[in-house]
Amino acid sequence: MNIIIEPISEAHIAGFRACLDAVAREKKYLAQYEAPPLDRVAAFVRDGVAANVSQFVALDGAAVVGWCDVIPHWAHAVRHCGTLGMGVLAPYRGKGVGGRLLAACLSKAESSGITRVELEVRADNRSAIKLYERAGFRREAVKRKALLFDGAYFDAVQMSLVRD
Ligand SMILES: CC(C)(COP(=O)(O)OP(=O)(O)OC[C@H]1O[C@@H](n2cnc3c(N)ncnc32)[C@H](O)[C@@H]1OP(=O)(O)O)[C@@H](O)C(=O)NCCC(=O)NCCS
Question: Could you tell me the pTM of the whole model?
């Protein structure tokens, strides 16, 4: 399997949406149950590309099989902060794709001046938490019953990676 990691571009919009939609529909990992409509995803990607946001995709040929982004906060006192989101299609997990996406995305975010990366992860998502801890993230807090999937509540863990 030859998976390439590269910055997202206009050409990846439909593939990124399909990948996000597949992971969201698992209803286990993301707060959204499905991807937003294509026009909203397209605007999100175009805005990010225009602002040089750290947004990467993993490609198997032309197919988007994973993504990672760090979206900078806009308000003045939190412009050094960004929120991380990521996902990899189920058949591609556990093969190092997430680790490669995360490294690329964190490196660009840092070189863009982001010194605090934040995220929230479902408390029972052990492979994601392990991946984040290996990258240097630390647990900050537990949000009790923060997520609701089909009538079942789950805690969420807030984590951050802070650069000096
Ligand atoms: C979290 C996620 C992005 C990690 O991507 P990945 O490509 O599986 O990551 P890696 O392979 O680099 O590392 C995952 C770790 O879990 C282990 N793992 C083994 N089998 C696995 C499997 N079937 N699925 C996930 N992880 C597995 C890996 O071996 C690795 O640990 P190790 O390096 O100590 O062996 C991916 O599992 C995913 O998309 N999950 C669903 C969406 C999600 O949780 N997004 C994050 C929300 S905060």
Answer: 0.95
